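Quick one, probably user error.
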């Protein structure tokens, strides 16, 4: 009897080549773009992993456009992504949560047809305490005929994204990716230095008994949000007739990764403290890419009223309330908001 040889691991490179050659889902520029972003994420993973030894913990002493204090690793991750993506000829421009304005491709390099949007290091309040952080990215097409893309070129609804993904720097480093045809997960093999496919066509169960929300904001929430959480907290003897569990990492990537892995919901609603800003999380850097991933995995993503992916951004750094994850719970909490007409 001949023993069956174990299936060979599929690298990200091979996965992307097959997406291009066999399935025709992507062209060579988009393949290069994803490879380059993945390579940048590997470099960020190395810096995050070195922690105090790399001298990268703590504040950079600067503020970003949102008025948030930047950590050294926020700045470094931003630089790594910019440097990696400038010269390949696949991009028309980049935009980052950490930069006021879009970053043009320097004239000495060729320009491509895509726009790359990213949050270089999400959950950065967790860096210094050794809790998972991540990188979130979204890929759009540069509008036809636009040679020097400005902010306006980026203001496209999330449904226009051609790809989205995140890297989570946790106990292992993973890259989760959608090219608009399901969600696939790759784990970084540190010994050989490449991402290896470890999960295909990930799906989020429609029902869940686990929620993620920052409960310390409860007193600032609107009535439908309180109603929904009160019902969950009432447990078995309450209107929902079941006990619910809570998790909150305060790194959106880590919370979304848990949901992608075993289901659940993640909510950052509007509250009285942040009402003037429109929400906490950024539409283009955080909400849109995560909404595309969640929808591709069979989940649902809304701003409490409608689909996040249909919002046409008014500005690059726009914020939105975010409700995403297992379909039946997101549907319910969105209905509570619609019924209350808040
Ligand atoms: P950041 O991109 O500046 O790190 O902020 C986004 C983070 C999310 O990762 C996380 O879900 C949220 O902010 C946590 O907010 P809070 O500290 O209010 O719980
Ligand atoms: Mg960030």
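Nope, works fine. Designed sequence:
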């Amino acid at each position: 009897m001949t023993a069956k040889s174990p299936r060979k691991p599929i690298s990200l490179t091979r996965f992307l080549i097959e997406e291009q050659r066999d399935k025709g889902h992507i062209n060579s520029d988009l393949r290069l773009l994803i490879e380059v972003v993945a390579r940048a994420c590997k470099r960020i993973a190395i810096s995050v992993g070195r922690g105090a030894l790399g001298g990268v913990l703590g504040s950079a002493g600067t503020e970003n456009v949102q008025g948030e204090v930047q950590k050294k690793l926020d700045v470094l991750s931003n630089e790594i992504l910019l440097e990696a993506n400038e010269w390949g000829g696949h991009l028309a421009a980049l935009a980052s949560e950490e930069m006021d304005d879009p970053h043009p491709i320097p004239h000495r390099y060729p320009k491509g047809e895509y726009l790359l949007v990213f949050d270089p290091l999400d959950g950065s309040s967790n860096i210094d305490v050794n809790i998972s952080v991540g990188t979130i990215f979204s890929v759009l097409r540069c509008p036809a005929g636009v040679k020097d893309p400005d902010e306006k070129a980026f203001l496209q609804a999330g449904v226009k994204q051609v790809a989205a993904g995140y890297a989570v720097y946790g106990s292992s480093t993973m890259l989760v990716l959608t090219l608009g045809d399901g969600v696939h997960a790759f784990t970084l093999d540190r010994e050989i230095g490449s991402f290896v496919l470890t999960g295909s066509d990930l799906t989020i169960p429609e029902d869940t008994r686990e929620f993620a929300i920052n409960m310390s904001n409860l007193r600032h929430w609107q009535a439908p949000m309180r109603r929904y959480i009160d019902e969950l907290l009432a447990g078995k003897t309450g209107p929902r007739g079941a006990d619910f569990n809570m998790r909150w990492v305060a790194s959106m990537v880590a919370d979304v990764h848990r949901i992608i892995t075993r289901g659940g919901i993640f909510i950052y609603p509007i509250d009285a403290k942040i009402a003037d800003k429109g929400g906490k999380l950024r539409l283009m850097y955080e909400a849109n890419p995560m909404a595309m991933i969640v929808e591709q995995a069979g989940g649902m993503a809304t701003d409490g009223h409608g689909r996040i992916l249909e919002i046409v951004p008014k500005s690059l750094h726009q914020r939105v309330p975010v409700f995403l994850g297992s379909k039946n719970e997101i549907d319910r909490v969105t209905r509570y908001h619609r019924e209350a007409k808040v």
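The CA atoms of residues 80 and 328 lie 39 Å apart.
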